[in-house]
Amino acid sequence: MIRSTGRILTTHAGALPRSAELRQMVFARSEAKPYDREALAARLKSEVAEVVRKQIECGIDSVNDGELGKTSFTNYVRERLSGFETRAYEPGKGPKPLSIASRDMKKFPDYFAGGGRGFGSFVWSGPSKSQVFCVAPLKYVGHAALKEDLENFKAALQGVEVEEAFLPANTPGTIEHWLRNEHYRSDEEFVYAVAEAMREEYRAIVGAGFLLQIDDPDLPDGWQMYPEMGVKEYRKYATMRVDALNHALRGIPREKIRLHVCWGSFHGPHQHDVPLRDIIDIIFRVRASSYSIEASNPCHAHEWRVFETVKLPEGAVLIPGVVGHYSDFIEHPELVAERIARYAKLLGRENVMAGTDCGLGPRVAQGEIAWAKLSALADGARLASKQLWARRAKAPKRAKGAKRKARRR
Length: 409
Description:
The chain is an alpha/beta fold. 43% of the residues lie in helices and 13% in strands.
C-alpha cells in the first residue's frame, strides 16, 4: 500500500489495451478453439512488458499487467474453477437469465432491445447468453494460468521503477453473477464455497509480492439484477457476500488488499443504480487498505458529497475515478485536478490517490484513447499536487498576516 505523502499518486482500475492478435488467441484458448500455444506465450509476455512500459510513460505510479491474459475480468474465472457445466439458454426452461441492467431495462426496453450504444450488449454477457451451473464441489484449477500471469508480470517489472505493482482478481459475489447454484444447500454455502476456492488465487498474488486488487462490481451492480429488492433487503444480500469475501481474505495483511467497486461499467442509462450513500458502509466493511470507486461518470460524479459526512476507515486511502470510461472524450487535466482536489479537501491529500472509474481497455473505442486518458490522469494529478502542497505550505503565512492587520485596526 502506498500513500500520497509528497504528491497525488496515480493508478487505474485494471484492464488496458492489447493487440487484436493477442485478443484473438486469448479468446481462442478460453473457448477451446485451436491456437498456437508458443505464439500465445511469447506474445503475451512481450505485450505485458509493453503495457507496463506504457503505464510508466503515461505517469502511472501503481501499475498492473493490463489483465492481458484474461478474456474479461469476470469470465476468466471460468478457466480457473471446476465443478460447473454450461447449458444453452432456452426461453421458458430453467431459471431466467440475470442482467446487471434489469432495473434500467424496465424503463428503457427499446434501448436494450436494440443492443444499446454498441457496448450496451455487455449487459447480456455472462449468465444471460448461456446458463452456467455449479453441479459439483467447486475447486480452484487455475494454477498454471495464474503462474503464467505472475511470471509475465515479474518479468515485465525487471529493470523498471514503479511505486507499486498490483494484480486484480474477482470476488465471490461477482463470480456468482454468471454461476448458478445446483449443488450447495443454500446461497450462503455456495458463495462461501466460491470464496474458499478463490482464496488460492488471492494468496498466490500476495505471496508473489504484489498488491491484491479485489474487483467487486457485484457489490453495487447486484442491485440492478434483482429489481424486486428494496434497499434494506439488498443491504442484507450485499453484506453476506462481503462477509464471504472477508472470509476468503483472512490471514492476508490488510495493507496488501485494494478493493475496486463499480456499477457494472456498461454503456447504458444507469438511471437506477443504487446510490453510493446506501452502500458505502458495506464497501468499507471489506477488509482492505484502499478503496477504488467510480466517481467521474454522469451518474456518480456528484457522490463526492457523500464524504462530507462519511469518514474513511482508519489508515485507509480512497481512489476516486477521476477519469472515466463512459465516453471517448479525453478529460482535461484541469478538470481532473478539480476532481482530485474535492476529495483531498474532504479526506486529506495523503488519503487520496487518483484512479479511473473502471478498466479502460475494453470500454473505449481505441487503445490510443485509453492511453491518452491515463496521460490526462497523470497530468491532472501533477496540477492537483502543485495546488494542494503549495496551498498547505502558504496557509500559515496568510494567517499571520491576517492577524497583524486585525491588530492594526
